[in-house]
């Protein structure tokens, strides 16, 4: 992908769903890596058009991008090269990989905030990540564990108010009971955007559990 010009770097960091050869979702990658796989002919683009799947290699996607640039420009993000533009794909399929990785959802601050949608689970208000903390529902001083079922997103004010007490002792009520998500919470946030609507065609909550990768 040499020769790009006037490009917003964030475009190449856009998220692309990766399928294995059997059309099963295996991970999420960046547009940069997706286009490299396409150019190396180890992947193809999968687009959902009128509820049907269509596959494209690099050259055919280049032709499709010309049409989209003319009639659907506002519906896509664009990689601008010296002689042409490419619409950023949303789904790619690996041509030679048929395994399904079994990666558990990582227990970390980012995923807890995403699971709770950056909302304090006590006052129910949404905050920037920098203004949020994590709270042990059952305090550690009382034997509470640091796990999915005992950790919630909490604003500083509510955290101070609750202190080392349980929610009932502090006269506070949880918005929702904390649980371990079945898939990375960031994926759920992406699905709420029209930009990633095509992902829904390939997601199966019964077995799909992917890890976000840069």
* Rg of Cα set: 21 Å
What portion of residues is helical? 10-25%
Unreliable stretches:
1-7, 205-214
Domain module tally: 2
Run of helices and strands: HEEHEEHEEEHEEHH
Instruction: Tell me the span between the first and last alpha carbons.
Output: 18 Å
- Summing up helix and strand content along with how strands pair, one would put the structural category as alpha+beta
Discrete helix count: 6
- Major beta-sheet overview: 5 strands, mixed
Order of strands, main sheet, comes to 2-1-7-3-4
Measured by DSSP, the beta-strand proportion falls in 15-25%
Overall geometry: elongated
Roughly what is the average pLDDT, rounded to an integer? 82
Number of strands: 9
Q: Which features would summarize this protein structure in a list?
A:
214 residues; alpha+beta; DNA Binding (I), subunit A; 2 domains; five-stranded mixed beta sheet; 6 helices; 22% helix; disordered N terminus; disordered C terminus
């Amino acid at each position: 992908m040499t020769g790009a010009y006037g490009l917003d770097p964030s475009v190449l960091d856009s998220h692309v769903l990766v399928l294995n050869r059997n059309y099963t979702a295996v991970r999420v990658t960046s547009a940069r890596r997706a286009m490299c796989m396409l150019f190396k002919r180890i992947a193809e683009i999968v687009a959902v058009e009128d509820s049907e799947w269509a596959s494209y290699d690099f050259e055919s996607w280049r032709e499709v991008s010309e049409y989209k640039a003319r009639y659907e420009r506002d519906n896509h993000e664009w990689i601008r090269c010296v002689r042409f533009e490419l619409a950023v794909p949303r789904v790619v399929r690996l041509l030679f990989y048929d395994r399904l990785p079994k990666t558990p959802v990582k227990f970390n601050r980012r995923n807890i905030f995403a699971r709770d949608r950056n909302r304090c689970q006590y006052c129910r208000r949404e905050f920037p990540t920098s203004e949020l903390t994590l709270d042990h529902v059952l305090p550690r001083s009382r034997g509470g564990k640091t796990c999915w079922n005992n950790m919630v997103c909490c604003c500083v004010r509510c955290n101070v108010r609750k202190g080392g007490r349980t929610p009932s002792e502090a006269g506070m009520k949880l918005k929702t009971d904390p649980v371990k998500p079945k898939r990375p919470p960031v994926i759920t946030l992406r699905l709420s955007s029209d930009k990633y609507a095509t992902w829904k065609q390939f997601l199966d909550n019964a077995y799909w559990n992917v890890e976000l990768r840069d």
